[in-house]
Design goal:
186 residues; alpha+beta; four-stranded mixed sheet; three-stranded antiparallel sheet; 7 helices; 7 strands; 35% helix
């Protein structure tokens, strides 16, 4: 497999049927994000911003994109909502408008989708997304961030195993969660 570097708009243009006019305009923050990917669908990718790239609009809060119908994913969001005392993190379902506006098209089987973490440094998915969340939370969560020293070729297959089986093991909701009034701002 050869890694290719492309921008979000290049990824969208490369996918048949991913008409740009059908999507919301991509904010400036996503336009400067460079995605490392193995194929047109973001898989096993970590994104970085090019050195020296300037943003016209910085990302104020990191966003965790999660599978809105996955029971395990929703429990993870509940846990992070409680742990994020500084209320820095924001949340959006992968099935929602925010994900369509800020992320490359996911395509494929929803069971194969990864949690995605978007921050000022770019887009992170699979095990890297989880590790970025732990890093951002700080405190005792920082200890889970030490898993970063486990090589990605070990972490990501383990992540994908759980991701492929998450509906069977933890259940599935009929629709995305509705945030409480308190959670709506996040």
């Amino acid at each position: 497999m050869r890694l290719v570097r492309r921008s979000c708009s290049e990824v969208r243009d490369a996918i048949p049927g991913a008409a740009m006019e059908a999507r919301a305009p991509v904010p400036a923050v996503a336009d400067v994000v460079q995605i490392w990917h193995r194929d047109p669908v973001m898989s096993g990718a970590t994104a970085t911003t090019p050195a020296g790239a300037s943003r016209t609009r910085p990302l104020e809060h990191p966003i965790i994109f999660f599978d809105g119908v996955c029971a395990m994913c929703n429990r993870f969001v509940d846990l992070i909502l409680r742990a994020d005392g500084r209320e820095v993190l924001r949340f959006a379902p992968l099935q929602g408008e925010t994900a369509r506006a800020l992320l490359p098209p996911l395509g494929g089987d929803p069971r194969e989708w990864s949690m995605v973490y978007l921050d000022e440094r770019g887009i992170h998915d699979q095990s890297d997304a989880s590790l970025e969340v732990y890093r951002r939370l700080g405190g005792a969560w920082w200890l889970l961030g030490l898993l970063r020293f486990v090589p990605r070729f070990i972490r990501n297959p383990a992540y994908r195993l759980v991701a492929r089986n998450r509906y069977r093991w933890f259940g599935r909701r009929d629709s995305c969660r509705l945030p409480s009034a308190e959670e709506k701002a996040r």
